[in-house]
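Quick one, tokens below. Sequence please?
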């Protein structure tokens, strides 16, 4: 099981659904989250930060490394590794995938009683369109989807 939580950005205007793969890292490892509207407040440090389509995630890498070593991951803690591998990362491929998923289900729900096959096919094709758009926009996790 992975714990999922919502996290507000620094300015509070936006938030993201986060995932914690294997519950390895705790929420406090993500020291700061900046949305595209408040990212100018971040003093860029490539050692502790990673950018994803205008969002900036700042991690406590020393604490992350200690937790990773405890579990013998044999990996060097880097912001890119933590984000791309899902250890403290977007739930899905972007900050709002969860909402997008719910929205799609709500939109297509009327189809369930009419034509279940069409419902499932539509759900799949609309989701693939969404993933393709994230990929085109440059979201990191979408590049490998
Ligand atoms: Zn913000």
């Amino acid at each position: 099981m992975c714990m999922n939580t919502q996290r507000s950005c620094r300015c509070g205007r936006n938030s993201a659904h986060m995932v914690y793969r294997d519950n390895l890292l705790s929420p406090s490892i993500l020291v700061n989250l900046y949305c595209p509207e408040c990212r100018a407040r971040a003093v860029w440090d490539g050692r502790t930060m990673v950018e994803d389509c205008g969002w900036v995630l700042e991690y406590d890498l020393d604490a992350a490394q200690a937790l990773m070593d405890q579990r013998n991951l044999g990996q060097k803690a880097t912001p890119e590794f933590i984000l791309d591998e899902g250890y403290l990362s977007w739930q899905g491929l972007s900050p709002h995938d969860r909402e997008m998923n719910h929205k799609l289900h709500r939109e297509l729900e009327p189809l369930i009683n009419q034509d279940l096959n069409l419902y499932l096919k539509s759900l799949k094709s609309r989701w693939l369109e969404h993933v393709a758009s994230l990929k085109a926009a440059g979201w990191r996790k979408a590049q490998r989807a």
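Residues 9-11, 13-14, 34-35, 37-38 surround zinc ion (CB under 6 Å). Residues 3-90 form one domain.
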